[in-house]
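Input sequence (248 aa), recorded before submission:
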Amino acid sequence: MTTPQAPKAELTYHRVLLKISGEALMGEQSYGIDVNVARSVAEELKAVHELGVQVAVVVGGGNIFRGVSKSAGNMDRSSADYIGMLATVMNAVVLQDALEKISVDTRVLSAVNIPQLAESFIRRRAVRHLEKGRMVIFAAGTGNPYFTTDSAAALRALEIKADIILKATKVDGVYSADPMTDAKAEFFSEITYQSVLERQLKVMDASAISLCMDNSLPIQVFNMTQPGNIRRVVSGESGVGTKVWSGK
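Predicted structure, token format:
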């Protein structure tokens, strides 16, 4: 059994929820899962876990199947979304395997009942796992169609009373436009929820941003391809990504 470590006093956040896209697990591939990338993500998470931080993860499924995508074709939206949920379960189990190979006790909790692969999501059970020093991966989104894994991340973070959502991306934070295509894109070190919604910035979907705004749950958007960034965020180091909050 994992023995929980006492959080260190210098930590800014003691319980965090990390949102990782399914695409982040593809690496340089055009589809599927790169196990080397999963191993790299696991190492980053272990470094934070060893600080005494309670870590929960929500992983997307876009590397395999997304309900609102060309691959869904003219499928019924509900059916397509349920397939997308199953894709997130696959990614969660891969990440769990990568974490347990480096001795991080991990539990996958699924919003869709798949007892052979994961525990069913129960809020109190999830919190208890975290308190016992286990890492928790939430799979299958909210368990409902028409809701993205961004919304699932906001919902689960609030349910477990996380201090912050860490939104992992491939860029340094939030910009006024896509920095990959617009050289004049302005970088924001911090921005309010309202500004994100008004500018229609692609941080998280509008439902997730609204849920975080209504409950004053901050979001830190950062570049996960930069080694050590998760650790820097939870340690309160400045200059890492963009903070989305009320501004107060």
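Checked by second reader. The domain at 15-245 is CATH 3.40.1160.10 (Carbamate kinase).
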